[in-house]
User: Fold this.
Amino acid sequence: VVGGQPVDGALDACQSELTTYAGHQETSRAVSQARRLAASSCSLTEGIEALGAGWVAEETLAIALFCHLRYPGDWAAAVLGAANHGGDSDSTAAVAGALAGAVLGIGALPGDWVAVVEDRAGLLALADELWRLHGACGGRPCG
Assistant:
């Protein structure tokens, strides 16, 4: 998605790549289930419960992905959805925020949330450096 590929295309590519690794089955199943549930009429609570509690990596990824796909243009809704369940909600919310942030960019984050982040300037400088190293903006900071 960082390169501008739509989320569905990126997920297809990731799922294809996953199959090249031994032991991919649980993660592949979890990602497929998250995608199916996000496209269904189930409630947020029902979807998260079907995916697990987030105590293992594939459940955390699936819940985060489900919440992002359920709220594709709303960073805060995806994060809050991933945070409000009885499992390992800090992990699921962190991954949902990272995924939604990669797709939507920093402008999608609520300004009042960003304003209170400790060492915001340092984190933004680090993000610009990582982006520069990635080369996605011709070696220039993109922000």
Residues 1 and 116 are 27 Å apart (CA to CA). The mean pLDDT is 91.
